[in-house]
Design goal:
By secondary structure, this protein is α+β, with helices and mostly antiparallel strands. The chain has helices at residues 4-37, 80-96, 140-145, 150-167, and strands at residues 52-61, 66-75, 111-118, 132-138, 171-178, 196-197. β1 (52-61) and β2 form a beta hairpin. α2 (80-96) runs antiparallel to α4.
């Protein structure tokens, strides 16, 4: 017979898991509704009239399985979502370059949308300083053309997450969509069904 205290503990853990799952599902649903309404109509690249500012790109390197910062000066819009989209576009442009240390085809056009969902902590209402869930909507062409392999896919995902956090520290979580829909993996390995920690450190050599 199962002891009562173990039964109580099991029920508590089960309820906590259900509640956490419901919260994450609600966040993703809200983000998907925004996607369908087309609220983010920002261009793929930052407009040329935007002021030039420093941006930190967390760039992956296949040679030593690392992610390292690279500071560039880019024209960046003021809108946070358009700003993050422009920064990620530049990151993927680096990966699409002929001499890329982490070669991935597609470039900036692979980022269909980036939008933010406030994460309310506990019962508190969301505020301008609330942690943010960033939803990155990739194109199916990018996913189809991405090199398959655990290391290559993981480096891409981690570099995107860390780049988001480096340029907007309020971004603490990241979710991925492909053409507006949930996808099991990026190219057969990296899990796109989970919520990533935006401050998660990349693998070490």
């Amino acid at each position: 017979m199962i002891p009562r205290h173990q039964t109580v503990l099991f029920v508590i853990l089960l309820l906590a898991s259900v509640i956490m799952g419901a919260v994450l599902w609600n966040q993703l649903r809200r983000a998907h509704e925004r996607l369908l309404r087309g609220q983010n109509a920002a261009p793929t690249q930052a407009p040329l009239v935007a002021p030039a500012e420093q941006a930190t790109l967390m760039v992956a390197d296949d040679a030593d399985n690392s992610v390292a910062p690279r500071i560039l000066t880019l024209p960046l819009p003021q809108n946070p979502e358009a700003r993050l989209r422009a920064v990620l576009g530049k990151l993927l442009d680096l990966y699409a370059a002929p001499d890329a240390a982490h070669p991935v085809p597609g470039g900036a056009s692979s980022i269909a949308q980036v939008f933010l969902v406030p994460i309310a902590e506990g019962s508190a209402k969301a505020s301008p300083t609330s942690p943010q869930l960033a939803v990155v909507n990739l194109t199916s062409a990018f996913a189809a053309g991405h090199p398959s392999g655990l290391q290559a896919e993981t480096l891409t995902v981690l570099s995107i997450c860390e780049t988001l956090h480096a340029n907007l520290p309020l971004v603490t979580q990241v979710r991925f969509l492909v053409d507006g829909q949930q996808r099991a993996t990026l190219a057969g390995h990296a899990d796109l069904t989970r919520t990533y920690s935006a401050a998660e450190m990349g693998p070490q050599p």
